[in-house]
């Protein structure tokens, strides 16, 4: 709940942050909307026992006034003369105010004033308007009753403010709990990233260093003749590990740009059919695997960032090749609908469990099967892919059953 319960708002109060206000004493408050005031009032009434609700107080005031009037008349007859007939009436007002609040107390003042006038003032002055000063003897009673009602109203307002403060503290407690949870998740993600990154980056660097040292030893041992085949093999391994290290660094840079909101799409009209075909041809050449590609008869053209979509297709196809058997095929399909284009990449690997199909798009997340396999990675590819697709106004999802492979779908608007 938002706190703004002061009846007298300081004119020097100024808007600080959105709905947050700061008064001249430096105290910060939040603006309370009408709906929030209504809800807070309902919560306040809900915390009060039913027999102490204002409606019950208005009803109880009538028999209480009647009982007080009877007692006053009885005492007046007993002693013959009663100088303070309003004594019991003040006590009744105090009783009503104590249990039912300011509203029923004001109602009690009206009833008691009418009763005092009718039974004690009117019999004295009758219809003689010249004795109107005698009717002013109930004014002190009315004044004392209003003072009681005012004190009760202040007491109710203090209770209302206490409830609002309690609700505000509960809100802040929930916010702090959510913030702490986010910080814990971020801390765990940081630790997981450091663990994975240190391992993944260390492996290619160690290999590159070892291969470079091996080539240097070969060159130093063979002063006259140089084994070109050995040098070529060593350089190929260095090139492979350097490429792997480059991919890891590029993924880390993409994640950094993605989180900083610095990813800029250079959209232009591109042939999606040709783009997918080029990515498939590259993977066929590198992996020597069989990849099928089903396309419509007409080329599919969309307004998008061709480089980023190439990165999307590269991630999806490389994952399908990585986590499926060596001799299995990967099926890529491109469909053009009325308002969007649908791309699917299907593999025949182990599949992904239902509870993991949403988590695989999270940063640094890898399934237990991926962690236990010999295939290395930081768990960034699908997170980057999802961000690129969503920045194009599309969506990506996975359909999979353990043991029956996985199919990744990318939907992009035309």
UniProtKB/TrEMBL annotation:
Top-rank EC class of the record's enzyme: transferase
Cellular component annotations (GO), alphabetically ordered: membrane
Gene3D superfamilies, alphabetized: 1.10.287.130, Backbone structure of the membrane domain of e. Coli histidine kinase receptor kdpd, Histidine kinase-like ATPase, C-terminal domain
Sequence intervals crossing the membrane: 55-76, 82-102, 109-129, 135-153
Subcellular location(s) of the protein: Membrane
Main location: membrane
The protein, known as: histidine kinase
Naturally occurring in which organism (per UniProt): Dictyobacter vulcani
């Amino acid at each position: 709940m938002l706190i703004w319960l002061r009846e007298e708002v300081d004119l020097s109060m100024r808007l600080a942050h959105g709905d947050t206000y700061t008064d001249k004493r430096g105290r910060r408050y939040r603006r309370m909307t009408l709906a929030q005031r209504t809800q807070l009032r309902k919560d306040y009434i809900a915390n009060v026992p039913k027999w102490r609700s204002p409606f019950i107080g208005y009803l109880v005031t009538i028999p209480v006034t009647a009982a007080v009037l009877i007692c006053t008349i009885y005492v007046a007859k007993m002693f013959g003369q009663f100088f303070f007939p309003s004594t019991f009436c003040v006590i009744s007002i105090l009783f009503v105010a104590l249990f039912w609040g300011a509203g029923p107390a004001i109602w009690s003042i009206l009833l008691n004033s009418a009763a005092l006038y009718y039974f004690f003032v009117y019999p004295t002055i009758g219809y003689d308007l010249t004795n109107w000063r005698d009717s002013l003897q109930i004014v002190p009673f009315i004044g004392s009753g209003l003072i009681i009602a005012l004190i009760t109203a202040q007491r109710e307002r203090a209770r209302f403010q206490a409830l609002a403060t309690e609700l505000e503290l509960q809100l802040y407690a929930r916010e702090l709990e959510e913030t702490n949870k986010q910080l814990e998740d971020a801390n765990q993600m940081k630790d997981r990233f450091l663990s994975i990154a240190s391992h993944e980056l260390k492996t290619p660097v160690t290999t590159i260093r070892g291969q470079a040292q091996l080539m240097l030893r070969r060159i130093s041992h063979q002063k006259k003749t140089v084994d070109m085949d050995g040098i070529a093999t060593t350089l190929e391994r260095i090139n492979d590990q350097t490429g792997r290290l480059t991919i890891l660094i590029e993924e880390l840079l993409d994640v950094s740009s993605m989180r900083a909101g610095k990813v800029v799409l250079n959209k232009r009209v591109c042939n999606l059919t040709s783009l997918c075909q080029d990515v498939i041809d590259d993977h066929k050449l590198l992996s020597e695997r069989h990849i099928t590609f089903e396309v419509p008869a007409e080329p599919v053209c969309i307004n998008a960032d061709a480089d980023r979509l190439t990165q999307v297709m590269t991630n999806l196809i490389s994952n399908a090749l990585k986590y499926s058997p060596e001799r299995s095929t990967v099926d890529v399909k491109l469909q053009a609908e009325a308002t969007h284009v649908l791309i699917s990449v299907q593999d025949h690997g182990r599949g992904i469990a239902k509870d993991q199909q949403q988590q695989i798009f999270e940063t640094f997340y890898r399934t237990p099967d991926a962690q236990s396999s010999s295939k290395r990675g930081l768990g960034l590819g699908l997170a980057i892919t999802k961000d690129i697709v969503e920045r194009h106004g599309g969506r990506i999802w996975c359909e999979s059953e353990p043991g029956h492979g996985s199919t990744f779908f990318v939907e992009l608007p035309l």
